[in-house]
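Self-study notes.
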Amino acid sequence: MALPFRPCGSAGRNISLLPRHVPKSITTQVNRVWYHSSVSTDELTHFSSLASSWWDPLGPSRILHLMNPLRHDFIASCIAESNPLSSHNYETSDILTNSSGANGTASTNTNRGLRYLDIGCGGGIFAESLARTIPPLPHIGTSANSNINQNLSPVTQASSILAIDPSPVMIKIATSHARADPLVHSHLQSGRFKYENTTLEALLASNSPSPASTSASASASSSSSSSSSPSLQQPSQPPSTSTSTSTSPSSPHLQFDIITLFEVLEHVNPHTSSPRSFIKQCLQLLQPGGWLIGSTIARTLPSYILNQVIAEAPWPIGVVPRGTHEWDKFVNEDELKRWAGKGLREIDGSSDGGDGTGMRWKCVGAIYFPGLGWKLIPGTERLGNYFWAVQRGRAPE
């Protein structure tokens, strides 16, 4: 998962003390869900066994903690290059918020902030850090829209985030940790930050409801808009982390401005799915003009040596638990770009990879320097870790 470095004593002890056998309780929880999805039960069990140490910055997930600031930097560069909100095609309801105006029509306010979806959130390292950039709830008597617009983070411009993961153990860890932060907890209570124990396939399936459920949802939305703030939905109870796949945490026509996919593609189950189909499913949930942003590892000889042979070696050399990676599941940049273009052409029915102005592609390598941390280094994409992004073509104005 990362270029090697020598961990400090505490980190080494945490890695060496990882359980050789996964507790039966974890195996039972994992095996009862997600048989027909992109989720590998073996990998799900492996990562669930790390849940208790997920938030230890010196533990087995240290690499993810160190990489997290780079995720924000890369997202910021994508937004600066092309902001999803400059598109005028926003007629669907806001995710995790109620965007209906007083007349019941959908809001087209292009300053409402960006709606995020974090797929494969794990214990919430990125999701929680993003939630901290969401503006606090407006004071009573203050216009909700104006408050949000004035306080959006200049880096993320986030107004809401839905974070999903197929592991009930991870979602429990993530939710528990988030509640310890008063600001993040308030976002959980308001619904602007939500964890959901589900899969990408289940979320996508819930985006195509039956006519009856669509009618019921429309009635509920109409009722809600008459009794709540025009831009913030504030449920009385914290969001559920149910493992049910029959319900959706959002509206029937959900689409997001930014979808993140960090260190996920290399763990897709090849027997029930593929990175190519997984990318297409992600793009289906992406708003025209929105960004699908991720990070993964190149399938090359240098990456095999660095990310599997060395990184998974016994301590004090290795930095991630053995079994974290499978080299043949790594994905190269050219493959990703090709899959994204083909997926957009299939979704939008356009020869240029988008519905109007074509897709935008962005990719840069990431290298870890001991003592300095992770750095984005163009031209190093084939050495190992790299960040990538694809922007869905905008609708014609």
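Second protein, same conventions, sequence then structure:
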Amino acid sequence: MRNRFRRLAITMIAAALAFTACGGSGDGSSGGSDAECVAEDKADLAITYAGGDSAASVTQHIAFALTGASGTTISWLSDTTAVIANNGTVTRPSYTNGDEEVIVTATIAKGNARDTKVFTLTVIKAPATEAECVAEDKANLSITYAGNDSASSVIRNITVPGTGASGTTIGWLSNNTAVVANNGTVTRPSFESSDAEVILTATITRGSAHDTKTFILTVKKLSNVKLASIVVSKGRLQPVFDASVTDYLDAPVPFSDNTNPAYDDLQSAGIKATVADANAVMTINGTVVPSGDEYEMNNLKVGKNNAVITITVPGDIITETYTIEVYRAIPVFKTGQTSTDAGISWPSPRFTDNGDGTVMDKMTGLMWIKNANAIKTLYPDFDHQPDTGWGDGKVTWAKALEFIGKINDGTYNCGATTAYTDWRMPNVREMRTLLLYIQDFSSITAVYTNAATLRDDWYFTSTTDPTNTGHTMITNFYQSSIYIGKKVDPNSTLNYVWPVRSAP
């Protein structure tokens, strides 16, 4: 019993000491102890935030302490009670209004002592409603123009977005789909028409909320990039000029303008084109040519020579291209039988020995291996046919191609032929240029360099018989004739081969 009274006395003394430490009876007579209690609770005062929140990011209700540990009372005052009420209830601002800063003042009091503590909080805006998402994406919605285009001058396709940053979907409707399709594809009016005004309406939707936004565009008409005329100085333009026709033939341009033409005569032809639009710029084969001026094509090769005419208009992206195939006639060479036969004289000498195992034909521009029977004279082991024995130089079609392949890969060297890798079997037209239409084979040998290797027999060509793909055309220098031979093993005919390449 005595111990229980002793413990009770100690407890009462401790309580009294604690009471007098914060101001005793609260009348302030003890020298500001209430103020000390206020100061202590002010220092310890904090706001309690819900999970994840902080003063810089408030999204949920907050808890205000109403009493302090030192016996103080605490009251709260918000400067924006619509966002944070005095009891800590939080009403987040709308998505449209954005985040809001709120100042909350706490008043800590005990007896006659009191003080305040200020808290600055940022309340995060509420998630956007469907209507707010629509409004935001509408405000930010724009059309993307290519190049230097703008709403007032459209000449290229436009880009129209199908979704907005706030999760909306955007549909587009054109009032003139022939000019601007709903997907932004632009088809400009013809140059005979006028510029076109097009209204594009965008519908922005999210959930049940939707709104529209209108864009007015001016699509510029096409520039006139047509030609007004084409005149050629030689030959005949075919078909007759029509601005809508872009491909022409100018033929025949004579092989030579000379009364007595020679094989090495040069030829030229002029083209005079005019543009339909005075502002248009014309180039012919890459050279700017003023409208109506003649463009001269020099050193025409025999056969096709293309003139490509391109018309543009500064500031526009469209072009028009016309192509003229200027065809220089193939020369008709004299037969060699008489001096009075019509045609063009052969070069004299016709063949030039290049000194490297090759011969240049100055009439055709073809390069031949100098040795007309290289298999027999240089590589007889290559020719070992079961039926005919060794080394006369006559081989099957497949072996002929194999021999040419070995020249190209460097296995066989017929002089300095390894300098070239594009040897091939001549076609029938190329072989015909070597034929002399006479009966005496001995007369032929005077024409060709290294004629001793030329055989008075059949030579392969690469030209397939049009009536039977298993046969090829062959030529005979003794008879100056053309025939057909089999090229499919095992029944391929045996013939000579004379490799050729296109010079240079």
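Instructor comment on the second fold: The domain at 34-123 is CATH 2.60.40 (Immunoglobulin-like).
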